[in-house]
Amino acid sequence: MELTQIKQEEDWVKLGNIHDSQGRYEEAIDSYDKALQIDPDDADAWFDKGETLKKMGKLTEAERCFEKSTNLYCGD
What we know:
mainly alpha
């Protein structure tokens, strides 16, 4: 992955976090998804997406994100 892609991915995660903190959950999910398109192995992005989904009441989807994040953190 190129440096510019890494920067773009980080920027999408940061934007997702901003949207989440403002209660703009759909926009946050969209931002996390864009980050994950660049780097599908970003455990932090999966975790953040899970947190937002949990706030939206989408618990099954949130749990899938948490599992993905945990697997990436643990190397499974």
